[in-house]
Amino acid sequence: MFCKIKTKRPRSAEVAFEEANRSIDPVDGKNSGSVDDAFLKRGKGDTRQVKQTRDKIKQYQKKIEQSLEKERLLAKELLKNGKKDRALLLLRKKKYQEQVLTRADGQLENLERMVHDLEFAQVEMKVVDGLKTGNTALKQLHALLSIDEIEKVMDETREGIEKQTEIDEVLTSTFAIEEEIDESEIEAELDALMEADINEKAPEISKDVLLPDVPKELPEEEKSRTKEKIQEPIAVMA
Known about the structure:
Belongs to the SNF7 family. By secondary structure, this protein is mostly helical. The chain has helices at residues 11-20, 35-80, 84-144, 147-174, 183-201, 220-237.
């Protein structure tokens, strides 16, 4: 619920202000029963009246133009019949009507300008009324929020962020490894694992299988071949 903003105004102006803003909706800006609405309605009525006067002048101009054409043809016919005086009188009347038509053109131009001014003034009144509605709603919203309250919210938000940062730092330091890791111990453990893996993959030799004895001396044929190979380089050197 919006609170009312009290400002010092004369009593009559205050009454007019309350009447103009009695039904303002700060959301959609509608203003029913406003004094400005009465001005707008009156302006629309004035514009409609000016347009009607303009249309009447246009009809009068059209009537005069038709009459001028008829009188021109009639004056031409009178001259053919030798009635010069009557033709001259008719031409004088035609000249006067032409002057009236010229004045009607000037009046019509003024009325057209007046119609445009009235329509644009109605648009300006709507703009001003919209600005008044927006300003009233903005003042009511500002009355709900004070600078002290906004600063308090910002301080609490800042404190919450700082507190969360401290919590994150504590949780991170709790799980940190304090002692340095000895790389030589890790390598030794890795070598042991590799050696165990090789031993597991190597085929096991059964203890029950009897293997042949390894001969202690070479056979006779091997001895003679070895002796010949030793003697050949000696013969070449000799």
